[in-house]
Specification:
single chain, Alpha-Beta Plaits, 2 domains, 177 residues, 4 strands, four-stranded antiparallel sheet
Amino acid sequence: MPAVYELFVLTKNSLSTAAVKTLMRNTGRTILSGSQSLDGASSSRGSGSAADASSSSSSVSSSNPSGVIMDVKYFGEQNLAYTIRRPGERHASALMWQMTFGCAGDRVAEVERGLRLDEGVVRWQVVRRRYPYGDGVKLSSFKVAERARAMLAEEGARGGAERERERERGVSERLNA
């Protein structure tokens, strides 16, 4: 059964936006296809040219993805609570991004390996989340979206009824006072 994970990454400020996007793209490809070449992991270190990105895109098998990316958030440059020291480096701020994804457990090791090999990554953390839609649901992007819409509709219907009851209580309390 696939699990849901949250990946939080801090990258160096000196990386260009294109390099950060390339790192995100390579991480996503690792999750979706399960195979990440060393060239893909190291392309965010270099210039991040379009030729590198197009050559690594041919390795993705889009016909049978084994993972799903649920959410990607980019927070931009953020000041850190404390300075991170590495040999010859000090980082008081970093570029932050987060990715929520679902995949098999062995895929997480591949993601971490790609992040470990990339010199632009300062820190990362992968956390396994409890699957919010129940254990019996197979992980596919369609089912995740369908189940999320159903949960929002149920929540909205319950929330609307509760708001009506609160309004009625408030009106009756004001009339009785």
